[in-house]
Every structure is written in structure tokens, then in C-alpha cells.
# Entry
Amino acid sequence: MKKKLLVDGMTCGHCVNHLKTALTEDIEGVKVIEVSLEDKCAIVDMNENVSKSALKEVIEEVGYELKGIE
Ligand SMILES: [Cu+2]
# Structure
């Protein structure tokens, strides 16, 4: 299912790549479609069994904050 993760704390292209890599490699069942610095979000295609807390943990580990999921 396609979801929009609202992520705070990205400031440059490096952050975008950093987040993209973390979401792709550190959590199973998540495919990153796009990470937008301007919109402060990551569009992902993820399995139903990926929990919000798992996403939050991975995102916080690399230094950003998960503000919500749409
Ligand atoms: Cu940056």
C-alpha cells in the first residue's frame, strides 16, 4: 500500500539520500518511491505488516522525526 510519511528535519539532498537509504535497507517490506525535501515527506510502498513504531525507530535512528503517516 502506498503511504506518505511526513518527516521533519531534512535540510539538504544529503538528508534525502540518507533517509532513502535507511528506509530501503534498514526495514523490510518498504519500497521508497520518492523522498521530497520541499514537501518534507517520503512516499513509500509498504507491506501491511510494517508498523508505525518500526518506521519511527528507523527514521529517528538516522536523525529525523516521523510526524505522521497519511
Ligand atoms: Cu542534509
User: Anything to note?
Assistant: Residues 11-12, 14-15 surround copper (II) ion (CB under 6 Å). The first strand starts at residue 2 and ends at 8. The chain has a mean pLDDT of 97.
